[in-house]
Amino acid sequence: MKEQSYKMTASTISPIFIGGTGRSGTTILSKILSKHSEVYSFDQELRFLTDPDGLISLKHSLVDHWSFFHGDMAIERFKSLMSNLKLRYVGKYPNHGLSEHTSNTFYDQWIDSYISSLIEYQSNHAWAGKVNLIQKGFLKLINPSEKPFLINKSYYCSPHTEELFIQKTQSFMNDLYNQISKTNKKKVIVEHTPSNLVHLDFLIKILPSLKLIHIHRDPRDIIASYKTKDWGSNDVLQNAKWIQDVLYRWESIKKDIPNTFYLEIAFEQLIRDPEKEIRRICKYINIPFEKSLLNIDLSKHNIGRWENCFSESEKNKLNAQFAKLITKNGINEIY
To answer: Could you tell me the pTM of the whole model?
Structure first.
């Protein structure tokens, strides 16, 4: 069994994750930290950590809700996701090119090695999720020995304990971080997918030395910014519900996480006193402050943008929706 022979890759890299609601300052903070001499910052999000069909989906299928069928489809979808993320302008994630951070050769070997560690074997099975109606018709007409020519191979994964799955996934992530560290000669690596915030409990398990920076912002300005994006709703209150649920989910998760794993900063304070806030971040992630961190234009911050974007009726609804959150984050004191 692979469970008995599996060995984990170690790492001495410091993984820094930035999280938020989206449009809360995660990207700008990543760009600031990228100016540090000891920091490597991904210029795009590592979507496979928290997106559907990524590592969380694999855990659900191999640990929490295992079956032959769940395992097979989880591997198929994970392979497809990682293929889409490999190169820019290809697949469903056109702005992502993760292999640029390593190399195409490393990337392919890295994925193949991880998948190999998860599966027991491949075989030909014409189960419902693998064949369409036309294939079904042909399968009824031919000799069973010819089936391999008509259907794709299926992946068989034995049920994993959470401990074993986490061990393999830690090694998978350590391989990536070690390669990036070696290539770029950096020991601190920053990643800024907003949804890191609501999956910190999972991320800690696969990267137990990580630190997360939660950058939050007046939710009314976030919703104003959503209006400029094609992935946001056109309905103000629908966006408000989305933001509210993210922040409430975070409040629920962090109750069970030691506060050594995260630092919370306000976008507005970062804009108003960048040196003070950046020094606080440097202290938290254990790197010396460098003046180069201040060499970034923060003038296009759009603080208070919401006041000119919404009708009076919409403003009143948003103020009522976010009354508790705005007070909690101290935003009333800012405005």
So the answer is: 0.91
